[in-house]
Amino acid sequence: MRMAQPTIEKGLHMKKRWKVNQWRRAVVAAMGVALSVTMADSIAAGPPTSKVNTTGLAVTDDTVTVGILHSLTGTMAISETGAQEAEKLAIDQINAMGGVLGRQIKFIQEDGASDWPTFAEKAKKLLENDHVAAIMGCWTSASRKAVLPVLERDNGLLYYPTFYEGLEQSKNVIYTGQEATQQVFAGLDWVAKTKGAKTFYLIGSDYIWPRTTMKLARKYIETVLHGKIVGEEYAALGSTQFGSTINKIRLKKPDVIYAAVVGGSNVAWFKQLKAAGITGKKQTLLTLSVTEDEAHGIGGENLLGFYSAMKYFQSLDTAENKSFVAEFKKKWGADAPIGDVTQAAYEGPWIWKAAVEKAGSFDTDKVVKAEESGTITFDAPEGKVYLESNHHLKTRLRIGEWRADGQADIVYTSDYIMPNPFPKGY
Amino acid sequence: MNTFYTRWLGGRQGSMGIAILALLIFAIMPMWLDIFRLNLVGKYLTYAFAAVSLVMVWGYGGVLSLGQGVFFGLGGYCMAMFLKLEASDLTSTAHQTTPGIPDFMDWNQITQLPLFWEPFHSLTFTIIAIFVVPAIFAYIIGAAMFKRRVGGVYFSIITQAIASILTILIVGQQGYTGGINGITDLKTIHGWNINSSSAKYILYYFNGALLIGVIMVCRYVLSSKLGRLLLAMRDKEDRVRFSGYDVSNFKIFTFCLGAMISAIGGAMFTLQVGFMSPSFVGIVPSIEMVIFAAVGGRMSLIGAVFGTLLVNYGKTAFSESFPALWLFLMGALFIAVVMFFPNGLAGLYEQYGSRLAKLWQPLVRRFSKAPAAVVPPPADTPPSPPPVVRKLADKPVAAEPLPEEALRTRRPA
Amino acid sequence: MFGYSLSDLGSIVVMQGFSGLSLFSVLLLMALGLAIIFGQMGVINMAHGEFMTIGAYTIYMIGKVTEQYFPAFLPYYFFFAIAAAFAIAFIVGYLVEYLMIRHLYRRPLDTLLATWGLSLIMQQIFRSVFGGREVSPNLPDWLMGSWSVSDTIDIPINGMVVMVVTLVVTGGVVAFMFKSRWGLKVRATTQNRVMAGAVGINTNMVDRMTFAVGCGIAGIAGAAFTTIASTGPTSGSQYIVDTFLVVVFGGATSILGAVASAFSIAQAQSILTFFLTNAMGKVVTLLVVIGILMMKPEGLFASKVRK
C-alpha cells in the first residue's frame, strides 16, 4: 500500500485510509468466512482417516479409492460394458450426495480383457499396489473364481453383479446378482405351469456357470417337475458354430429350449436359430443369459417371442426405475442398453456405501461385519432389496418376453425369494 | 576348468553375458523392485525359458515352432495338477459333494479322481513328468515331421494347429482339466506355502538360478559338435545330409531339448503365479514367445532373456496406461524386428556395442572382446558379422529356403 | 444307431450337410485368397483373417448408411455391399503389399511374423474405430429365415445365398486364373519367375495384384461371415488356423485342392460335431487332417513345379 503523496490534501488521505481500513476489514472477514467454511467442511467430512482406515487402504481425508474391474475388450465386452457404466453412475450420484463418510469416491479402472488370468493379475494389482477399499467387478463366474484367491489372500472386497451358479459364499464378496436357485427354480416352475413343458433341451457355454446351473436345472426338472431332459450341450466361449446343435434340437423337438449361452456367442446362436426357422412363435425358449445388453447386439427381431428369466428389465414400470433409466441415458447416451447385470452393478456401490457407513470404517473386516448384520436394504430400481447375512440379496424373479425393439414385456413377477447358495441335495 | 570356461560359460564374451545377467537377476532387480513387481519379473523370467528354447530350436535349429506354448503348458499343468491335489485334501474340501477331489471336478459332477491324475500325488513323479511328457510329445511330433522332411512353413503351421488342438482339448474337457478357468487356487508344495512373500523371493531366486543353468546347458550343447552341425543344417541342409549325417535325428533332439526347457518354464510359472490356464497354451502366447526371442536376437541365448524382459515390461507398463497404444506398439515391434532388426537386441549390441566400446577404450580394454578376426567367435554369437542392414537385402542373416523349396518337401519332385 | 431312426439319419445328413455348407463357404473363400497368395508368392499372410474382418465391417457400415439415408434400398444393399467389401479389402491389400510384403519375399517365416504384427495393428484399429463390442449389420429380411423343404428339413436361406456367392466367386477365380491374360501371367510367374521376367512380364506388378485379389476375396468371405455371426475386432482370428490347414491340406498352389479340402474339412467337422461334442468334433477333424498331412505333406493336389 503506497503512502499518500505529501501534496494530497488531508481529506483525501483520510479517505484513502478509510478505504484501506475497509479493505483490511473485508479481507479479514473473507478469511473468517473461508476458515469457517473449511472448518465446517472438515467437520462435515466425517471421521478422521486414522479411525476409518487402519489397514492401509487408499483413503485420505477427503477421498477414497475403489477399483473397477471389467472386460472392456474381448468376447465379454458386449455384456460387461454396461456394468461398469452403471458403477460409474452410482459413484457419481454418491459423490454428488457428499460421498462416503464425507469422502469423495475416486476409482481406478482396469480391463480384464475377457481373459481370466488377466482378471486375477489386475485384481492383485488393485489390491496390492493401489490398496483400493473395494473392487466393483467381474462378470463371468470364471473371472470371479480367478479373482477369489487373490481377494481372500489380500482380504479385499468384491461387489459382484452377475446372476451366477451359487455354491459359493466368500467373506470377501457381496453378490448383488441372483444365485441359481433364485433364477432357475422359479423360472422353471413358471415355464412348466404356463407352457405345460415336459421335455427340455439344455444348452450353454462351456464354463462353470452354465455347467453348474444346468446341473441344478436337471435335478429340479427331473425330481420336482418330473420332466425329461432330451439333450444337453455346451459350446466353447466365443464359439459361433451352432449348426449341429440346432439340427439336433429340430430332431428332438423339445417343449422348451433352456439356454445359458453367454457373451458374443449369443448373437450367433440366435441368428442361426432364426435362420433355421426356429422362432418364438413355434418354439418356447427360456434363456438365463440374455439381458438388454445382449439383445442390443443380437437384434430384437432375432429374439422376438423368446423369454428371459431375470430379476430386472429396463421396461419395469416403477418411479425408481424410471428415474434410474433417465439418469443412465443422460450420462451414457439414449441408445445405451440397461440390463439385469447393469442394474445389479448399480446396486454395488450403494450397498458398499451403506455398509461402510454402518460400520463407520473402510476396513474390510468391519465392513463385512456390517454387511452380515442383515439390516442393510436399498431401494433399487428393481424394487427394495435386502442384503442377507449370507452375502446375497433377497430379490424377486421376473420373466420377460422379448419384443422386436430389444425391450422385454414383463409377463411374470415372483414373490421375494430368499437366497440359498447351498441348496440341499444338489 | 578350461573346458568349463569355454564350453559351459562361452568364453570371455559368454561369461561376461552370464555375469551381467546374473547381476541383474540376483542383485539389481531385488534391490530396486518391491515384491509385487519382483514377482512379475519372476513371471517374465519363466517366459524367458520358452524364448531360450526358441533360440535353440529356431535360431540354431532353423525350424520355427509356433507351438512352444504347448510344452510350456504341459510343464505348467503337470505342476498345477500336483499342487491342486495337495490343495484338495480331505479337510479343505469337506463341503464338496465328493471330498478329496479338486473343486472343478466336483462342480462338473465328477465323483472320482480320473486315473491319469492319480500319479500326480507324488512330487517325484511330477518332476519327472515335467521333463518326460513334453519330451515324448516333442519326439512324436518331431519324428513324424522331420523324418518326412517336413520343414519350414509347413512345420510352423502344423505346430500352430497342434497348439490350437491342445487348447480346444483342455477347454473342452472341463471336468478333467479345469477347462477355460484352468487350475486355480494353488496353495502349498509339500506343506510349504507358495503364496507368502518369503516364498516369492525364494522362488524368484530359484527361478533365476534355473534359468542361468539352462543357458549354460544350451551353451554346452551349442559348443559341441552338435552345435556346429545345427548351424550347418540351418544354412545348407542337403550338404550335411550328403556328408552322411542323419539330419532329422539332430532336429528331433533339438526340438525335444527345446520342449523340456519350455516345460521347466511352465512349471516355474505355475509355482510363482499360483495357477495355470489354457490361455498360455494356444496360438497367441506361442507367437508372443517367438517375438521375445526375435526381439532379443534369435541367435543369442542371453539376448532372448533380455528380449523377454523388455517386451513384457513394455506390455505391463503400456497396457496399464495406454492399452490401445500398446497393441499398436506390439504389432509394430513384430514388423520392425523382422524388417529392420533381424538379429534383435543382440545384433544391435554387436553393431553398435563395439563402437560404444571404443569410446570407453581404456576402461574397457580388459573386458572387451578381441577383434573378431583374431579369436574365433564363441558358438553363441551370430555367424561372421553380416553387412549392416540399411536397406533390406535379398539374403538376410538367417537364410531361409526359397519359397519354391518351402512349398515342397525335400523329396525329389 | 445312436438312437435315431433311419429317416432321422437321412434328415440329419441333409441338414448337417447344409450347415456344413455355410462353414465350407467361409473357409473356401478364405482359402482361395490364401492359396493364391501362398501359391503365388510363398507369402504366409497371418493377417488374412483381418482382411475378412475388413469385409465384414464394410458390410456393417454400408448397412448403417443405407438404414439412415436410403431406407428404401434396404432390401437391395447386400450385393452392392459385397462388391464394396471386395474393393476395400483389395485396396488395403494392395497398400500392404506395396509397403511391407514386397520387402519380405523369399523369407516366408519372416513374413509370417511380420503379418502377425500387421494383424495385431489391424485388430487394434478395428477396436479403436468400431469399439470393442461386436456389431452386426442389419441384414435384409429376405436373407433371414429358412425354406422348409419338408417337415424335418429346413434349409437356411442365408446359407444358400452364401453358397451361390461362393460358387460365383470360385468360378470367377478359375476363369481369372485359367482363361484370362492376367491369369496367364500369374501362372507363368508361379512356375518360373525368372523366365517370366525374361519374357517381359512385370513380376512385381503381378505379385501386387495377386496379393490384392487374394485379400479382396477374403473381404467377400467377411460378407459371408456376417450372416452367421457378429463381427468384432478379433473375429478374423477364429478361422485363420483352419484356413491355413485347408490351404496346406489341399496342396498350396491348387485351386481344386482348396475346394476339395475346404469341403472335406467343413463337412467332416460338421458331421462329427453332431455325433460327438462340439470340442471333440473339432479336435478329431484337426487330428485327422494333421495325420494325413504327415503322410502326404504336399497335400491332396500338389502341382509339380519346376524350380
Describe the fold and architecture.
The complex is a heterotrimer of chains A (426), B (413) and C (307). Chain A is of the alpha/beta class and 426 residues long. Helices cover 46% and strands 19% of the residues of chain A. In chain A, strands 6, 7, 8, 9, 10, 11, 12, 13 and 14 form a nine-stranded mixed beta sheet that branches. A five-stranded parallel beta sheet of chain A has the order 2-1-3-4-5, sandwiched between helices. In chain A, helix 3 (77-96) runs parallel beside helix 13 (340-359), helix 4 runs parallel beside helix 5 and helix 9 packs across helix 10 (292-298). The longest helix of chain A has 35 residues, at 10-44. Chain B has 413 residues and is mainly α. Chain B has one domain (2-409). In chain B, 67% of the residues lie in helices and 1% in strands. Chain B is built from 18 helices and two strands. The longest helix of chain B is centred in the middle third of the chain and has 27 residues, at 197-223. Chain B is globular, with a radius of gyration of 22 Å. By secondary structure, chain C is mostly helical. Chain C has one domain (25-240). Helices cover 71% and strands 2% of the residues of chain C. Chain C has helices at residues 6-41, 48-69, 77-99, 108-130, 157-179, 181-191, 193-198, 203-226, 240-250, 255-275, 278-295; strands spanning 146-148, 154-156. Chain C has a two-stranded antiparallel sheet with strand order 1-2. In chain C, a hairpin with a 5-residue loop joins strand 1 and strand 2 (154-156). In chain C, helix 1 packs parallel to helix 5 (157-179), helix 1 (6-41) packs across helix 9 and helix 6 (181-191) crosses helix 8 (203-226). The mean pLDDT of chain C is 84. At the B-C interface, helix 7, helix 13, helix 15 and helix 18 of B face helix 4, helix 9 and helix 11 of C.
